[in-house]
Amino acid sequence: MIRRIITSGLMLLLLSFGALAYGQDKISWTDLSYEERQFLQQLESQWDSISIERQQRLRRGATRWQQMNPQQRTEAQDQQRRFQNLSPRQRQTVTRRFQRFNSLSRDQQRQLRSIQRRYRSLPTDQRRRLREQFERRSASQRRDSNPLVRPAPPSPSRRTIQRNN
After folding, report:
1. Cα distance between residue 146 and residue 120, in whole Å
2. Which of 3, 27, 104, 137 has the highest CB neighbour count under 10 A?
């Protein structure tokens, strides 16, 4: 009985500390710098209802924006404009690829960026030929030729599992 009370008390204590830690992670609108508030001003009325993770991402984005030079800002705005002009299906494809890229390890991301730089440095006609070659491949051939995509290990059959027991 005493053990249950102590356990319950400890659980309650842990939960309250967790709630405090959770509350402290939220970023108050007034904690943002003037520049961050200017950049994020369209979100001010929604700020308190935005998840902690999204608040942190938005804050990092605002910081990155402040650190960009005018040319980088123009390029970022052009890129955003191009994205907004895509069809919903194209935006979904881009978003899925972005998420997939972000799920790669840092080393894999570096490899992929290196491959992309090498590709962009090729003459236009060579890039066109490579693109045509790639498009002639089936989806499985494309996937199998990607050094960053590892095939999933074969799942053991039911017989193998039974034999091992």
Report:
1. 18
2. 27
